[in-house]
Design a protein that fits this description.
The complex is a heterodimer of chains A (796) and B (211). Helices cover 48% and strands 13% of the residues of chain A. In chain A, helix 28 packs across helix 32. Chain A has 796 residues and is α/β, with parallel strands linked by helices. Chain B is globular and about 55 Å long. The chains are: A alpha/beta (796), B alpha+beta (211).
């Protein structure tokens, strides 16, 4: 078998891919809208002839006629797709046999996108996508492919599913190319840095760009890849997109111009070039002949460390960055309860507050005794990462939970943690290898935490050496040389700082610290933390796990970064700290005459919280609810029903009540807060719009109903199961499109068949009273207030 | 923001002719700005000669069966098939906001719809120039089935070109997206505005007199 990795390393000249397949098939009679892939079965000569023409054009990589097999698998089933793979690999081998060229031809199994958008925004499940790629790649390997190419990818999450699926299905090397628009982003939002971080983390062998709108706009994006990637780079632009009849349009790029374009990419330092839509054997021939003698550009290993989310990458280099520590239930009863109740809104609010305060990565830990950490961690990581636009640090000592969360994370996560114990490294490194990520490595091992910096440094060295055996690069490890309380050992700060320096200088590796331990058992902890942070930054610390809401500590971070010369023009410092005095003055002002009722009616959330806090000093929590919140809610609710108060006002008041409840709930910690009853709500299967359901949920919660929110796209069986489990008397269902009303009916009927006494209310843009009746629902809720009224009726 | 956009958003969040109080007013302005900054408007289109078939129309090799669509395009010479989206970022923005402020999520939702309509009108005007044309007619209007979304996406290669997808239930994603047919040339004219041609006469958002 070919060793592609060595072939790339040892190449003396650029390597060449072939060009378009679909365009050639259209010339040979392919109908518009049909999959070119089926030509391998129905018109194999056309496919074989095209491969032969490309072999004669001088290419090194021959791409199978299988770009559409993933959508074929979805539309016609995996068996049909596999037949296409078999036929296509057959055509390719026949072409190679017939031409028998005297150079190595690398057989590439080509896999394009599924044509579906993945959950949560679309309806294809991550594992279903991964499984398709896994089956296809497995078949490709069986049939003698040398490389799997995943190309024209539009969406980072699908890309992750595809690469993972291929890795699970076969052991072949993976090349991956994606499509960007003129701004250099995937159509689903990710920038180039985020995709490169993801792909490098997952261990592809080469990466780059293919297709895209205008090939003349690609240079800047290719240049960006060159600057951030440590891998061989592929560029396969189109030579003009086909029009819908497959006819070349005026905008087609001639072979000469196409080769000029390729020259410009090779000048940037691209290693592998080829063509996409519209390119022909002549295009490729012109390129191979012209650039055959070019030198293979050097592949430069980048030293920085990158983590990413769906939109961007965050780099550890040049300055110390903040990792927000607040989504961790240790010592936080409110968060603990939110986790147990699966109340993600609370955690998301915490996430956004930390980002606003300057966190660039968020730590997520759900370690609450007695919960299913494997399920909850993934759920929390996904909820946080879809609502908060920063990379996540997956924080758990449970490696099963770590594995699942890493798998479903949309990006390259930071993972907390591994340590020098053999058992820990054996559990964590394979996960890093499989899913990609950067790991925090604690400098402790079987003997515990060493007392000296030198010993901690030795453990770091051991961890790097072990990681190498798993092919994990040093820049995917960040060392935490550990912070111990200075109150119990006055030398502990010094040891930690020295360890940072040793690791930085001798291993050229990255470091991170959680700083708050340092002040344990001492007064004015924030002050001590801030000073220690300042010293650690001066020692070269790359990242710090902290509470971003602590102004003192964040101030220390920004000041120290600036003072160490890592904040050019003090721009971060100024933007973070310049507004400080103004805000302080603003919060001082308050309107003495404002009552809680008025604040709620006017939708003033912060004021409502503040007044509630004041009221709690000499009022029972329940009396605040009964005497202030309920009357306010009633006034707004009735106003809404009369058409005098509008939806945004109703919802702003709801938010004010919620803010007030947050304060009151704290005094409920022992005595149980009373609820009026439990309501299960869901958007029916197939429907991915959930704004209406979310409005109903927030109003029901305001009226102190306990709402179990099953989310969107929920199958009838799941609604029934949950209704049985929660023993609720009322279910609320939402559907927004005519196409999903049948699923609503199915859900209503299923519930009624098992629980005839359970009431079902329905709502959504396409529903009417008549439709509601027809599908067997008890109640048509025309708006959120109508559902509240009905729920109150049911629960008396 | 201009007053037309403002009025449209106001109408969509249920205000009709009533005055907007300060808090909602600033929310509308904030959301309009957020949506403008976040969206990545993209569109793709293709003009076909119009061929009438029994119960519908033929565009290229695709058949669309709908009496209402045929009537809408009746006097036109050709048809522009159009697809546009504000991108997944807007879905993310709305989803993110719904965890923190439903009021904002609702106003963002309305703002995004208004922005998409506005940009689409402009894009189509820019492409067609002075040519007379009908209003946009989309799957889901009248008897034109939503199932045609998939076909339109395929014809326009909209997944690759603009990142527009449909679900198994023919719902467009990103959610702020449009596909439509506009009749061009011949005797066709803008048949009233927006709502006039729609059979959903009970719709709460229907403009007065349909215009």
């Amino acid at each position: 078998m070919l060793n592609i990795s060595n072939l790339l390393k040892n190449s003396k000249r650029p390597l060449f891919f072939d060009g378009a397949m679909g365009t050639e098939m259209q010339k040979k009679g392919l109908k518009v809208g049909d999959f070119p892939d089926f030509f391998s079965i129905h018109n194999p000569e056309a496919v074989t002839d095209t491969h032969r023409a490309y072999i004669n054009s001088g290419c090194d990589f021959l791409t199978s006629n299988t770009f559409g097999v993933a959508p074929i698998a979805i539309k016609y089933g995996i068996q049909e797709a596999i037949k296409v793979v078999e036929a296509s690999m057959g055509c390719m081998k026949e072409a190679i046999l017939a031409e028998n060229p005297d150079r190595t031809i690398i057989k590439v199994l080509d896999l394009g996108p599924t044509g579906k958008l993945l959950y949560p925004f679309g309806d294809l499940k991550f594992d279903d996508a991964a499984e398709i790629y896994s089956h296809l790649a497995k078949k490709g390997e069986e049939l003698g492919a040398d490389v799997i190419l995943i190309e024209t990818m539009n969406d980072s999450y699908e890309l992750k599913a595809a690469v993972l699926g291929v890795k699970e299905g076969c052991s072949l090397p993976v090349f991956s190319t994606f499509t960007v628009d003129a701004s250099g982003r995937l159509l689903t939002g990710g920038n180039i840095d985020s995709v490169v971080a993801l792909l490098e983390g997952m261990g592809v062998l080469a990466l780059g760009i293919n297709c895209g709108e205008d090939p003349y706009e690609l240079a800047a994006h290719v240049d960006r890849i060159k600057r951030i990637s440590s891998l061989p780079i592929i560029v396969q632009p189109n030579a003009g997109l086909p029009d819908m009849f497959g006819k070349p349009g005026d905008e087609y790029i001639s072979p000469e111009k196409f080769s000029d374009l390729m020259g410009s990419f090779l000048d940037i330092g691209v290693h592998i070039v080829g063509g996409c839509c519209g390119s022909t054997p002549l295009h490729i021939k012109t390129v191979t002949e012209r650039f055959y003698d070019r030198e293979f550009p050097e592949i430069v290993e980048k030293e920085f460390t990158a983590v990413s989310n769906y939109s961007h990458a965050v780099y550890l280099k040049d300055r110390t960055l903040a990792i927000g520590e607040r989504i961790n239930p240790t010592g936080k009863p409110r968060l603990k309860r939110a986790i147990m109740d699966e109340d993600f809104d609370y955690a998301i609010k915490e996430a956004q507050d930390q980002i606003d305060a300057g966190a660039e990565i968020l730590d997520v830990n759900v370690g609450v005794l007695g919960i299913d950490e494997v399920g909850m961690l993934t759920l929390m990581v996904n909820k946080i990462s879809s609502a908060a636009d920063v990379p996540i640090q997956i924080d758990t000592s449970n490696t099963d939970a770590m594995a699942v969360a890493m798998r479903y994370y949309n990006g390259k996560p930071l993972v907390n943690s591994v340590n020098g114990k053999k058992e820990s490294m054996e559990a964590v490194f394979p996960l890093l290898k499989k899913y990609g990520g950067v790991v925090v490595a604690l400098t402790l091992d079987e003997r515990g935490i060493p007392e000296t910096a030198e010993e901690r440094f030795e453990i770091a060295k051991k961890i790097i050496n072990t990681a190498e055996k798993y092919e994990i690069k040093k820049n995917n490890i960040i060392f935490d040389p550990l912070t111990l309380a200075v109150s119990s050992d006055s030398k502990s700060a010094e040891v930690t700082l020295k360890a940072i320096k040793l690791i930085k200088e001798n291993l050229k590796a990255k470091t991170v610290l959680g700083i708050s331990n340092i002040s344990f058992g001492l007064p004015s902890r924030e002050m001590l933390n801030a000073s220690f942070l300042s010293m650690a930054i001066s020692a070269g610390l790359d990242a710090v796990i902290l509470n971003p809401l602590s102004k003192l500590v964040m101030g220390s971070l920004h000041s120290s970064n600036a003072l160490c010369g890592n904040d050019e023009g003090f721009s971060d410092y100024i933007s973070a700290l310049a507004d400080e005095p103004k805000e302080a003055v603003k919060t001082e002002k308050s309107d003495e005459s404002l009552t809680l009722k008025k604040a709620v009616i006017s939708g003033m959330a912060e004021k409502s919280a503040k007044i509630t806090k004041e009221l709690l000093t000499d009022n029972e929590p329940m009396s605040i609810v009964d005497n202030h919140l309920i009357p306010a809610l009633d006034e707004v609710g009735i106003g809404f029903e009369l058409g005098k108060v509008y939806l945004p006002q109703l919802l702003m008041s709801a938010e004010a009540v919620k803010a007030s409840f947050e304060i009151i709930k704290k005094s409920f910690s022992k005595q149980q807060g009373k609820t009026r009853g439990r309501v299960v709500v869901a958007t029916v299967e197939g429907d991915i719009h959930d704004i209406g359901k979310n409005i109903v949920k927030s109003m029901l919660e305001n009226y102190m109903f306990d709402v179990v929110d099953l989310g969107k796209d929920v199958p009838a069986e799941v609604v029934l199961e949950s209704t049985l489990k929660e023993s609720t008397k009322l279910v609320g269902l939402s559907a927004l499109m005519t196409t999903t009303v049948p699923n609503m009916e199915k859900t209503v009927r299923l519930i009624k068949s098992r629980l005839p006494e359970c009431k079902v209310m329905v709502g959504g843009a396409v529903l009417t009273k008549e439709i509601a009746k027809k599908i067997g629902a008890d109640m048509y809720a025309r708006d959120a207030m109508a559902s509240v009224r009905y729920a109150m009726e049911i629960y008396g | 923001m201009d007053s037309v956009d403002y009025q449209e958003i106001k109408r969509m969040i249920g205000y009709r002719s009533n005055t907007v109080e300060d808090k909602t007013d600033s929310l509308i302005r904030e959301c309009w700005q957020d949506v403008n900054e976040t969206s990545r408007f993209r569109h793709v289109e293709k003009v076909f000669p119009l061929t009438a078939i029994e119960g519908g129309i033929l565009l290229g090799e695709s058949r669309f069966y709908s009496k209402d669509l045929s009537n809408h395009l009746n006097l036109s010479e050709s048809v522009m098939l159009y697809a546009a989206t504000l991108g997944l970022e807007v879905d993310r923005l709305i989803s993110k906001s719904s965890h923190v402020s439903m009021a904002k999520a609702v106003v963002l939702q309305a703002s995004a719809t208004v922005l998409l309509e506005k940009l689409s009108d402009k894009a189509i005007d820019d492409i067609t120039g002075q040519k007379n044309k009908t209003t946009r007619f989309s799957p889901g209007y009248g008897d034109l089935s939503l199932e045609y979304q998939d076909e339109i996406i395929n014809i326009l290669d909209a997944k690759k070109r603009i990142g527009l997808y449909s679900t198994d239930y023919h719902i467009l994603i990103p959610s702020k997206s449009i596909t439509s047919f506009s009749g061009l040339g011949g005797q066709c004219a803008e048949t009233g505005k927006k709502c006039a041609g729609c059979s959903m006469t009970e719709c709460p958002y229907r403009l007065k007199g349909g215009a």
